[in-house]
Every structure is written in C-alpha cells, then in structure tokens.
Amino acid sequence: MGLPPGLKKIGPALFELGVEFRAGMRVPVRIVASEKLLEEMDDQVFVQAANVAMLPGIVDASYCMPDAHWGYGFPIGGVAAMDVRSGVISPGGIGFDINCGMRLVRSDLTWSEVEPRLHELVDALAERVPAGVGRPGFVSVSRDEFRDVLREGAVWAVRHGYGISDDLARTEARGCFASAGPECVSECAIERGFRQLGTLGSGNHYLEIQVARSEGIYDAELAKTFGFDRPEQVAVMFHCGSRGFGHQVATDYLQTFLRAMPKKFGLPVIDRELACAPFSSQEGQNYFAAMCCAANMSFANRQVILHRIREVFCDVFGRTAEELGIRNVYDVAHNTAKIEKHKVGGVERTLLVHRKGATRAFPPGHPELPPEYRATGQPVIIGGSMETGSYLLAGVPSGAATFFSTAHGSGRTMSRTRARKLVRGEELKARMAAHGILVRAASLRGLAEEAGFAYKSVDEVAEAAECAGISRRVVHLLPVGNVKG
C-alpha cells in the first residue's frame, strides 16, 4: 500500500490531492489525518474520495476524516457538500444504516459504587436491550403507528413515555428531521422496520458502561458543563442506527437512481455505488424524505434504549433516575445528508451536506445548539473499539473548514473476516475480562470481528481531529462493561 502521487501536506493534519489526480474531478480531495493514520488508509479511500469529487454540484472539496476507510460509494469518513440547486443526493454518501449514531449518558455514580454491581448491570442490560441479528424490539407498534415514528422520531418516543423533554434538547435536531415523508417509503421497508424499535443490532453496534478517569479529563471546565464533574464518574455510551429499515430505504432508492441516471437525468455512472439523482428532482426529493424517515426511526430507537437503560440502573441501585443523576449528554448522528447554511469563499450558501461515517460538530454560538451548549460548542462523540475507549469532544469555530464535520469513530484497519482469522471470540472475551472489561455478546463470532486490533487508534484519531482544528478533546472514557450484538 502506498500513498497516491501528488498528495501534498497543506496544513496541520491536512493533506490534499489536486484535481489533476484523476480526470473528471471538479474539486480537490482533502484528508484530515496524521502521517501515521494516512499511511494506514487503504488505497480505495483515495479512489473513492476522488470519485466523490466528480459528482455534480460538489462544493469546495471532497473530505475524508481521520478514521476514513473503504466503504460503499463514499469512503466511510467521507464528507461532501452539494449545492441544493445544481447538486445531487447519493445514498452511497449516506450509507445503508441511515443515522447510525452515538448517544452518551452521564450519571452521578462513581466507579467505586458501580464496580460491585457491574456483573448485575451488564447482565440486565444484555437481557433487556435486544441485540444481535433478527431480534425484535421491546417496543411493539403497528405498521401505522410505525409511520408516526417515522414522522416524529424521538419526539414520538418521549410523547409515549420513553424519556423526558430534556432528552430532546440534547439530541441533534431535537431527534426529528422535519422533512420526513412516510409516503416515500416502500412497504418492504415498513415490513422490515416496524418490529425493530428498541434494538441494538449487530456488527460494530454496542452498549457500553464507561468510566471517566481523572487523567482522561482534557478540559475540566468544559467537561463540567457537559456533566462530568467528579472523579471516576460512570457513563453509558451506545451506538446503533435504523436497522433493516434504513438498509431497505437505501436499497430501494439506489435501484431507482441507477435506472434514472442515464435515461432521465443524463448523468454518467462514475461508480454504480455512487448512484445519485439531482437533489431538486422528484426522485431526489423522495429519497431525501425517505432518508429523513430512517433518521427519525434511528433517533426514536436510541431514545427508547435510553429509557430502558434508566430502568435497568434504577432497578439495580434502587433509586430514581433523578437520584442517580442519569442524564443525556448528547445524541449525534452519522450517515445523513442535511440542508445547512455554510460560508464558502466568504459567501453564505445553502448546501446539502453528506456525512458518511462522520459527525456534525457545530461551534460555540451556533443557533441549532441548545442553550446549555451555546457557549461551549456541540458535544461530539467519537466511539473507539470496545478495548480502547472513546472520546467526548466539542465543536470549534475552525471546523468551518470541513463544514463543521469531524470523525465518528476509530475506523477499521482490516476486514471482519481477517479479524476472525486472528482471534476467536472466546479468547477475546477472556482477554478483555483479564483487562477489567466485562462483555456480553449475542455472537462470539461477531465479537471476534470487533477486536481492538481491527481498528485504528482512537487516541490518534481524536488527536488528529484536534490538530486539524475540527474539534477538541474534552474527556476520554474507558470501557468497563460492554453489550455487543
């Protein structure tokens, strides 16, 4: 594996491939990374990012975040902003697991209080939050009720008693993308999704009990604002998305776009995985409405899981959620396309920002942030592997360079197949237990796929994001208990 010719360093932790790299590129490729992370990226990252740079209406650059690796169409960790009038929308720039995202929950509990009850907690969470392939959720809704979920997102969950209004204030877009249109969703997608509300899923999805050690606090004042105000504080982080519903939405519209591209829109097929449609077209608008439905399903999914986490902690400790200080810190989406206003060349423009395996990171003062975070910038969650920990960061003004986007996780360095060849699930589970991390997994085969060595260093990813000025570190959270699909 070698770096592409013509790659230039243009700033701290920032590299560029000019439009001469491949014929047809409309804008350059810019990669946020350290030298080490750059060398770990597979060749297809550069090829895919260059393909993205050829899409009609792309603005400024095709970006890759520090965790970038090969994906479907876009690299995972890819960011591209399209002009809403001349640009396209691409399911490959959003992903199959639409609004796969992270939620971080703080508590007043400390490690000394939780350690004696850790087995009980992890067992109860594994029992009461369905994980793994094909398991139905614990929230039962009809197909028509599910359409209400698609319209309202996390608002539906709170309205039905699965949470409190403060949860919505601390969720991106208050847990609801307003452009959702259930009429643009296929019956097949509804059938795949309506039983999955309240499920963690499989793959790299997890629910993790974490501890904020004193040495992991990078900014004590900012950490306190985000809710981390005591030594050895315990938190819960979880990662999940729109499940089979989002996958079906993406599948349906990829097929629609592939048929329409050459005949109706006269668009060249650069890569079948980059199937797209003009955002202003009926097909583009229909997909956007369906994608918003999947994003809302995911927000609702994480909201009801938070409700179940509260129930488990209350049962184990015999206290109310208020007494335990269990509070949503933030819920942030990956895998979306959003209409946002950004300055490009000093001029404010309305853009459709694709974030595929990338996190929104709005700066202090941004009007979309809740009042308690208006002065600090948006909380940003970068999930690491289940062996290494995760980071809470904050958005910064200089993040404007990447349309206020940053990394979303560690990023894989090898395939799941390769990881399974290097370690057995039973062996990994025992190794993690020896290091003080208790694991409950729906599949030991799936556990092996998520071994820490299969991922980049989350420390290096977070450091590169800070060095490049797209977010800054606040708290490092270490895993002590993990529920895996």
Helices and strands, with pairings:
Blueprint: E1 8-11, E2 14-17, E3 29-32, H1 35-40, H2 43-52, E4 58-69, E5 76-83, E6 88-89, E7 101-110, H3 111-114, H4 118-128, H5 143-152, H6 154-159, H7 165-169, H8 187-193, E8 206-212, H9 220-225, E9 233-240, H10 243-265, E10 277-278, H11 282-317, H12 321-324, E11 327-333, E12 336-344, E13 347-356, E14 358-360, E15 379-382, E16 390-394, E17 405-407, H13 416-422, H14 425-434, E18 438-441, H15 444-449, H16 458-467, E19 472-484
Parallel strand pairs: 3-4, 18-19
Antiparallel strand pairs: 1-2, 2-3, 4-5, 5-13, 6-10, 7-9, 7-11, 8-9, 8-19, 12-13, 14-17, 15-16, 16-19
Question: Which shape, going by the Cα principal axes?
Answer: globular
How many structural domains can be distinguished in the coordinates?
1
Portion of residues in helices? Answer: 25-40%
* Superfamily (CATH H level) name: tRNA-splicing ligase RtcB
Taking the alpha carbons of the first and last residues, their distance comes to 32 Å
SS class: alpha+beta
Known CATH architecture: Alpha-Beta Complex
Overall average pLDDT: 96
Strand content: 15-25%
The largest pleated sheet is described as: 8 strands, mixed
Oligomer: single chain
Name of the CATH class: Alpha Beta
Q: Number of helical segments?
A: 16
Give me the Rg, rounded. 21 Å
CATH topology: tRNA-splicing ligase RtcB
Number of strands: 19
Low-confidence stretches: none
